[in-house]
Design goal:
Elements (H helix, E strand, L loop, with lengths): L6 H15 L3 H5 L8 H11 L3 E5 L7 H14 L2 E6 L2 H15 L4 E4 L4 E2 L5 E5 H10 L7 E6 L12 H9 L5 E6 L5 H12 L2 E5 L7 E7 L2 E4 L1 E5 L7 E5 L1 H11 L16 H11 L7 H10 L5 E4 L3 H13 L7 H14 L5 H4 L4 H9 L2 E4 L5 H12 L5 E4 L13 E4 L3 E3 L4 E3 L2 H8 L11 E6 L6 H9 L13 H20 L3 H9 L1 H20 L7 H35 L5 E5 L6 E7 L23 E4 L4 E3 L13 E2 L11 H15 L18 H12 L8 H28 L2 H15 L3 E2 L2 E2 L1 H6 L7 H9 L8 H12 L17 H22 L18 H8 L4 H8 L3 H21 L7 H12 L2 H5 L4
Parallel strand pairs: 1-7, 1-8, 2-5, 2-6, 3-5, 6-7, 9-19, 13-15, 13-16, 14-15, 16-19
Antiparallel strand pairs: 3-4, 9-10, 11-12, 17-18, 20-21, 20-24, 21-22, 22-23, 25-26
Helix pairs in contact: 3-4, 6-7, 19-26, 21-25, 22-24, 29-30, 29-31, 29-33, 29-34, 31-32, 33-34
Length: about 950
């Protein structure tokens, strides 16, 4: 090919190659045995040019390559790189990858409960660890050149998302930020914010999956393609995706009812032959069972597969169903390899704990190539499942949606049992973003030619809705940033109140709020220009027409108010007169379609009032009399037919034989009515004097109007029209301004309220952080202020390590489902007293928050401490056996380990924050950590 180039072109190409080889990217690319994708190259080039980058790409597309290039640059430049992840499992996984490439001497790990080579030039850590380092002014930040924030879309998480924004805002300006995100629909908006707070940031978006994804629906014995592929009729060759008509027909058939009134034949049901044909058609449609699905996927060559089930118990049940069905996905050689790996990875677990943890049932599933994966599992067990799945020794995993978040565990196929999940409050449809995240696991780069997403058929499934879910890429990044007490004291300590307020106004939350009012602000500007024009139009040479227009408006408003009062009084009088009517009263209906003479058949009184009359109807919206008109019509009238009070003109006896449905009865009684009262002329009511004529305020306003200079202007009515337009536009503009005020400076206003409360409690004095505030600055967590107050009030003094562990558990534990029916079991004695005091202190804080308008519903403030884990923490710290603790706690091992790790984390903070002199808390907190960090908790490397 180069022979075809001219000498000048060959020279230019050589210059380009030489320039490329001189970059840091060239040797980095040589480390990989595959070519980088265009988006990876573009991001790496931007990084090398000194820019920050935001890379938004689908799961499995290889965006972590960009993060690894930041590590490469840092080492080449003799600087540090921190690689942050949202969860410890990801941190462990990334640490292992980087050690394999760069060696253990150059890579460290910090995850709160794990510290390995923390002063290395490359440190992998959870995002919270970096946040805490920034607030503490850690020496480890010296020489930091790059920070990689993997899974940065976690900032949408309503519980932990604020940490990501805190890090982004507070990182030194000299640090280059690498943000790696799943595909989000507002990447440009997020990039604009990063550009504002971090400087020059390149946004690289790739929506192309590395492995094509095919969507299917499994119904009965068949697997249907969700989409029917074809080219558009315009001839441009673009693919148009339409729902498979076979699926639409299937849905229509399934939704047909067995019985339809239109199919009646002379009053009989649908013929038996029709029903039999329908039963045969329906026999083709059912939701296949879990073993059947795995068997089908195996037969089609679509394993390994992850089946997402939104329930832990259902994941475990699915494994058991497959075992009972006799499924075996591994041969003897694979079984032996599985047993070898499992025994090696679990060698540290005491033999007596294996039975408690369900080890043997778990191992049987693994040997057959089947496993569950969810947060309730022991972390070690989850790690083994992940390793075996990646190695191809586990081929079917039943998992909750937590697996979709970050863990590198791709499959050939992903199965979704249902499109509805429990969100903590109700069963809700999964969103397009969640669907994309879950199905993103399908298709292994470099292994599979294509990935497959399979949705199981469910009753009343709508293929069109499923296609919309699968075809939508709407996954917006929404900030969940809210100031906290700990954040407030740390910010004030570092920057003072004024600068802290300014920093918070640079948050992504405020950026999004401000952007949402841009359109409203523009409308306000247009309105203000219009107001200026109207003001000119109403200008009068005789005086201040705006003042004159205000008098006219006040007069009009007063007249309207009096008119409404008069109308209301007349309606009340009319309703009162209707309530006095009795059957047999002859009345004159004053207005409406049935105006004229009428005989009351039933007064139709409001509920609870009978007026001596039994029977008839009762109404809640006022009297509704049933009458016979002189024209033989029987009608039920309403209060609108009586704008004025009504009186009985005469009385008549209604025959007992009268039947309102009988034309003859109506004709005879109407005739008797005309004979009895046809000659009576109703009294014409004199028009009442208007209340306005006697109102002093109206008299005063009219006098002021007549005395005003503008009253004599020849163009007065023209000016008045402009003034009315001005008034309406001014009113609309004020409403828009209130909307803007409600959305702007929201974060700063919340910060102001938090600072006011902390000042009231002597944590802050102006820009000074008090001794109590310095203690609060070391306490991170949802109940930071409560923990600080417990230390301040010496609530935990004199508690032994196990009792302290029980009390601290109330600060972190939160039951998955609220159960107020049974009071949780708690230790007796001093621990029980201390827990009761913690709840009392929380009540005091809750009242203070209400006083300072700090709203827990908005994610700010202290929730009530949950005592549900106190007994388990106490038992475990008291050296009780795992079997006894788990049985009494009625809790899966994975949950137990996770909560113990969180208690250990907060105990470490308390040990650092507690007073050193005249206090036993710090010493006992460290002892409590040692007491909890044993057995399953100690050997679980992931929390």
């Amino acid at each position: 090919m180069t022979e075809d180039l001219s000498p000048a072109e060959r020279y230019a190409a050589a210059r380009v190659r030489a320039a490329e080889e001189a970059t840091a990217l060239a040797p980095f690319r040589a480390l990989y045995d595959f070519d980088l994708d265009p988006f990876q190259i573009e991001a790496c080039q931007a990084l090398e040019a000194g820019k920050g980058v935001l890379v938004a790409a689908p799961t499995g597309s290889g965006k972590t390559i960009v993060g690894e290039f930041a590590v490469h640059l840092a080492l080449a430049q003799g600087r540090k790189c921190f690689y942050t992840t949202p969860i410890k499992a990801l941190s462990n996984q990334k640490y292992t990858d980087l050690v394999r490439r760069y060696g253990a001497a150059k890579v460290g790990l910090l995850t709160g409960d794990n510290s390995v080579n923390s002063e290395a030039p490359v440190v992998v850590m959870t995002t919270e660890v970096l946040r805490n380092m920034l607030y503490a002014g850690s020496q480890s930040l010296i020489g930091l050149g790059y920070v990689v924030m993997d899974e940065v879309h976690y900032l949408s998480d309503r519980f932990r998302g604020a940490v990501w924004e805190e890090v982004i805002i507070h990182l030194p300006e000299s640090v280059t930020l690498v943000s790696l995100s799943a595909t989000v629909s507002n990447a440009e908006e997020f990039g604009d914010w990063l550009d504002t707070v971090r400087g020059d940031t390149e946004v690289i978006v790739s929506e192309e999956r590395p492995v094509p994804l095919w969507q299917h629906v499994m119904a009965g014995r068949r697997m249907y393609d969700l989409f029917e592929e074809g080219t558009d009729h315009g001839g441009r060759g673009r693919t148009r995706r339409e729902v498979n008509p076979d699926l639409v027909r299937l849905a229509r058939m399934e939704n047909q009812r067995t019985y339809n009134p239109r199919d009646r034949r002379r009053g009989k049901m649908v013929r038996e032959a029709d029903r039999e044909r329908e039963r045969r058609q329906r026999s083709r449609i059912w939701t296949p069972g879990r073993p059947e699905v795995i068997d089908r996927l195996d037969a089609e060559g679509l394993l390994p597969a992850i089946t997402f089930i939104f329930s832990r118990a259902a994941c475990e049940a699915a494994v058991q169903q497959c075992l009972y069905a006799g499924l075996r996905l591994n041969d003897d050689e694979a079984r032996a390899k599985v047993r070898e790996i499992v025994e090696e990875r679990t060698a540290a677990i005491p033999t007596e704990d294996l039975h408690v943890l369900g080890y043997y049932e778990w191992l049987e599933g693994l040997e057959r190539g089947i496993a569950a994966h969810h947060a309730g599992m022991l972390p070690t067990f989850k790690e083994v499942v992940e390793e075996l799945f990646v190695r191809g020794l586990v081929k079917a995993v039943f998992a909750t949606e937590t697996l979709a978040l970050g863990i590198n565990m791709p499959a050939r196929s992903v199965v979704l049992e249902k499109l509805v999940k429990w969100n903590g409050e109700q069963h809700a449809d999964i969103t397009p973003g969640e669907y994309t995240q879950l199905t993103g696991r399908a298709g292994r780069r470099g292994i599979d030619v294509e990935g497959h997403a399979v949705v199981l058929w469910q009753r009343a499934m709508d293929p069109e809705a499923l296609a919309g879910l699968a075809g939508t890429r709407t996954y917006p990044l929404r900030s969940s940033f809210k100031p906290s007490y700990n954040m407030a004291v740390n910010l004030v300590h570092q920057f003072g109140r004024h600068r802290s307020r300014e920093l918070l106004e640079t948050s992504f939350a405020q950026f999004q709020a401000d952007r949402s009012v841009v359109g409203v602000s523009r409308q306000v500007q247009r309105n203000e220009e219009g107001l200026q024009g109207y003001l000119e139009g109403m200008t009068c040479h005789l005086g201040d027409f705006e003042e004159y227009a205000q008098l006219r408006r006040e007069l009009k408003d007063r007249e309207t108010e009096l008119a409404k009062q008069g109308t209301a009084q007349r309606r009340a009088a009319a309703a009162a007169s209707l309530e006095k009517l009795k059957p047999g009263d002859v009345i004159h209906v004053p207005t409406g379609k049935f105006a004229g003479l009428a005989l009351v058949l039933d007064p139709g009184l409001p509920a609870g009032r009978t007026n001596g009359h039994r029977g008839g109807f009762e109404y809640h919206d006022g009297p509704r009399p049933l009458v016979l008109t002189a024209e033989r019509q029987v009608k039920r009238l309403a209060s609108i037919d009586f704008p004025v009070p009504v009186e009985a003109l005469e009385r008549m006896r209604i025959p007992r034989s009268f039947n309102a449905r009988s034309p003859q009865s109506r004709r005879d009684l109407a005739s008797a009515l005309r004979t009895k009262a046809g000659h009576i002329v109703p009294d014409r009511r004199r028009k009442e004097r208007s209340p306005a004529s006697d109102d002093r305020q109206i008299a005063r306003l009219r006098a002021e109007l007549r005395a005003h200079p503008c009253h004599g202007c020849d163009d007065r009515e023209d000016h008045a029209r402009w003034a009315e337009r001005y008034h309406r536009l001014k009113r609309d503009t004020r409403q828009l301004e209130r909307r803007i005020e409600g959305r702007t400076n929201t974060i700063a206003r919340t910060f102001d309220r938090i600072v006011a409360l902390l000042t009231e409690m002597d944590y802050l004095r102006g820009n000074e952080v008090t001794e109590h505030g310095q203690r609060l600055a070391r306490l991170y967590g949802e109940l930071d202020l409560l923990a600080s107050e417990c230390l301040r009030d010496r609530v935990w003094e004199g508690l032994n390590p196990a009792e302290l562990a029980a009390c601290v558990s109330a600060l972190v534990y939160e039951a998955r489902q609220a159960d107020d029916a049974v009071a949780p079991k708690v230790p007796t004695g001093r621990a029980k007293t201390a827990l009761a005091e913690m709840v009392r202190i929380w009540g005091r804080l809750d009242a203070l928050e209400e006083e300072f308008k700090i709203n827990q519903a908005e994610g700010v403030g202290q929730r009530e401490p949950d005592l549900g884990f106190a007994w388990a923490a106490y038992q475990w710290a008291s050296d009780k056996g795992l079997d006894e603790v788990l049985r009494e706690a009625e809790m899966p091992a994975g949950d137990f380990v996770r909560w113990c790790k969180q208690v250990i984390d907060v105990l470490g903070q308390i040990a650092a924050a507690a007073p050193r002199e005249d206090s036993t808390v710090a010493k006992n907190a460290r002892k409590a950590v040692d007491a909890l960090l044993r057995g399953v908790v100690a050997y679980s490397s992931v929390g």
